[in-house]
Amino acid sequence: MTATLRVLAIDTAWVPGQFAICEFNLPDGLLKLEMDSCSNDASSVAQTNLESGVQGDRAAIDLLCGYSRELSSTQRSTSTLIPEIKTGLSELGWKIDSIGLFVATKGPGSFTGLRIGVTTVKTLAYATDAHVVGVNSLDLLAASYLHENYSESECEKQLLSIMDAQRNELYCSSYRVHVRDNLRETGRRDAGTTEVNRTPRCDDDRCAAIEFPLFLRNRENSWTSPPKSLRRHELPKRPFTLDEVRAMATPENSIICCNERKLFERLANVFTSLYVTKTDPIVLALLGALTKSASDKNFFRLQPEYYRQSAAEEKLAQNSTANPNRC
């Protein structure tokens, strides 16, 4: 059994922003999961969704419609995003209330961009009584790379997705592809495994290891899930120095993907297996569909994840420290 789902996905974590309006034909089980409204483990949602919809050892998702646009890099997203979405819906002949799921990148990324994307999807979802999902920007980068470059020969390598955090720092997440048969037994990493040793520890539950099903494009408008998942290792939600990122990677067993040509040129002499990957808003829509649950009608749960204080917040904290008695 299959069912259709229309998705509007917005990625404004970086300039230029982009969005996609999609319709997916999904295994029916993906659309019927009910969860406790207090749960916020998107990875377990995705995995349970997948297992409930798989026939045999693979699941298939068909893209019935995929409309995507890049926003102007010279105009503010606040002035172009809604008009562009309206144009896209008009070209498709759809109404906004036909969208069942709104998805946005929730960070890390541009402070202003994240606020615009998250606020837009929450507002539209509230107005249409639809679901809303946030996707980590680094997860989107890693998934976009694998959707275009996955190969069995390299699937055992560590994958690092990195983005420029300014101030000579990097946002970074570390991933590995795992066989899904072992998923239930290895929902969290064993602290004694060798792959943990190279990454900074984080005891905060919000940084816990997560994983989500890996869907690979097998033709232009279809994805198939092999019996594997992409696991994000637990890392602190903060920027890293170049030395810290370099310590996580091994030259012979790591692939690093970044989202900007300028960043690639800056780091090409540091990492041997470095690739530029453009994030794909249709992949963002797919990730959102995989993590959709009944609890995602709680619009207030979705908040941007900045990974650092803004310059204004840092300045305020410095002033408060320097003048503790000042009102």
Can you characterise this structure?
With 327 residues, the chain is of the alpha/beta class. The chain has helices at 42-53, 77-92, 111-128, 137-149, 242-248, 261-267, 281-291, 311-322, and strands at 2-11, 18-27, 59-70, 101-107, 131-136, 158-164, 169-179, 210-213, 216-219, 222-225, 228-232, 240-241, 254-258, 274-276. β6 and β7 (169-179) form a beta hairpin. Mean pLDDT is 79; it is low at 32-57 and 181-208.
Write the layout of secondary structure elements.
Elements: E1 2-11, E2 18-27, H1 42-53, E3 59-70, H2 77-92, E4 101-107, H3 111-128, E5 131-136, H4 137-149, E6 158-164, E7 169-179, E8 210-213, E9 216-219, E10 222-225, E11 228-232, E12 240-241, H5 242-248, E13 254-258, H6 261-267, E14 274-276, H7 281-291, H8 311-322
Parallel strand pairs: 1-4, 4-5, 6-13, 13-14
Antiparallel strand pairs: 1-2, 2-3, 3-10, 6-7, 7-11, 7-12, 8-11, 9-10
